[in-house]
Amino acid sequence: MINSNLIPTSLTQGLPRNFFDELGKLLAFKSISSDTAYKADCKACAKWLIEFLAELPGLEVRPIETAGNPLIFAQTKQRPGLPTLLVYGHYDVQPPGDRDTWLADPFEAQVRGERLFARGARDNKGQTFFWLVALREALHANSLAWNVKVLLDGEEESGSSSLLSELKRLVPELSAHVIAASETAGFDSADPALIMGLRGAAILRFSIHGASRELHSGNHGGRVPNPAVAIAQMLGKLHDESGKVAVPGFYSKVQPVSPTQRELLAQIPFDSAAYARNIGVSELSGELQFNALERVFFRPTLEVHSIHSGFSGPGIKTSIPIEAQAVLSMRLVANQEPQEELDRLVSFLQSQVPVGCRVEFLMQRAIARPTSADPRADLYTRTGALLRKFNSKAPVFLWSGASLPVIAEIQNIVKAQPLLVGFGTADDNEHGPNESFLLGQYVKGFTFARALLETDYSGSFPTKVE
Ligand SMILES: [Zn+2]
Description:
Alpha-Beta Plaits, 9-stranded mixed beta sheet, 4-stranded antiparallel beta sheet, 14 helices
């Protein structure tokens, strides 16, 4: 349990008095969704959140039982004329991994220095909790300027399969003008940012087969196809010399970087030489006609993650392997459809199989759609101004090269504008050992969420949500 008396008040000014006592209780649940051994812990965590929400005045709470962990849906009394905000968060966490890599019990939150340490401190219990507390404060003050809906997922860390399978059925309940989530981070500092776009993702595993048995390279080499060489040749054709992906049609739906995007990008203090030094390469690569930020934020990419073939034990075995395998992934940008790009990639690979070899597609999966938003829209200019209050120097508008599958899917199906605002910092180590969150970021998150909930955005949305 957190001892609130030990938390320096200078770092937590502005938060309700019992904020960390309650957060400590939420963080104590071992709500690990990827391991069914923790199903009861996930349920207990959901129950705690349901009870928390049920105490909020005027909030109607509805747990949604699923084959997996419960979903939690809540909404304020819907008042006509107000825009609707859907707040998404998740109460499940990543497994802590090896206990020895943690300085203290991952499920017993502890303040050390300026940070709160616990599994979920950032991802996503911590960043969900400040929204819920902000909602509570606004309801108590009777100052809410939105119709608010809350959706809490119990399986985000393991693919949100229950939510995704229920999603179409839930559309009437989830309908909103805006879907807000705090899952992301600011740019290399404690200054929060609005993420205006995330890339989509798709993965593919394939194998190349040669002869039906392993063959002696002296007796057979030179006249039989070698799958290891074949796969290397095929992978070598995925990009052309200028760094572009060579799959025909891969860029056909990609929009040029807009002048607004360029202008906002120019405000991001990114030093590509320092970045290259930091990751230990002499030069960066890729589509060199785009700068290093554009390549990650606005350009689709294709990467090879693994190549396996032949004997990998100690010593050397000079035989010709019967098979080679590779795993590839694509990161996709606005307008690209993951399944469509997978189809293009599959037909390109089929066309490149060397003579005598056979290709087999072992797995292909559309992981996430891309999301994108126009920074000139009213929602973002106004929210940007709210955020700038905490943000002295860093840019308020950012993009991310990564993906948030479930949020992209909800946004796509519900047709809400995404409001992805992240208070994370580079040292939070979410998913790793000793996950933590700066105390001051809870203050910023809470203060921002409350300000947003109390700001009148009516007039910012052309379409009506029933
Ligand atoms: Zn996570």
